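Q: Make up one entry.
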Amino acid sequence: MLKSSTVLMALIINILIICLWHFLSFNISRFISQSLVDYKKFPYRAYKSENRGKFYRDNFYIDAWYGVLPIKYNRENININVITESDIPTLTEYINLTCRSELCSIINLFYFLFAIAVNLPAIGFIVGVLVVLGNMPFIFANRYARFLLLNELVKKRRLVQINQYIEEHNTDKYDFRNFE
């Protein structure tokens, strides 16, 4: 297709195709079934090697650049420090949204194969590598965000269990919650 085009024309057409590809991958990831983007299943589940997000902090220094990326799950500017126990379903929904965002970037990685197939080998390889390099920070950021949210989810679930235990085993004799 683009193998007989000039280099400039091939780059312009590739940019247009990349825009269309990203638009399609975003919509696919938005409308795909929830069962396919479960944070407990492959490829989204947490691995021991990721060490609850420490892998990304130590190897990619994600704390330095994570805040400047537009993360799709955080449109409402959720502050995980003010989420209460009643927000556990909301927290789970945001975890699944990070999976959808990661899926969008994973689909974009497949442009590498398309670029090599339709372009001259050198142009296809360069364009493909640039697309891969452009999407990797978003994959890492979504995985890191998922670890932040998962850690918060675990804390909130433990807090709910502790509060339930206190409610079940508490007598008014030692109730210091309303102490003034």
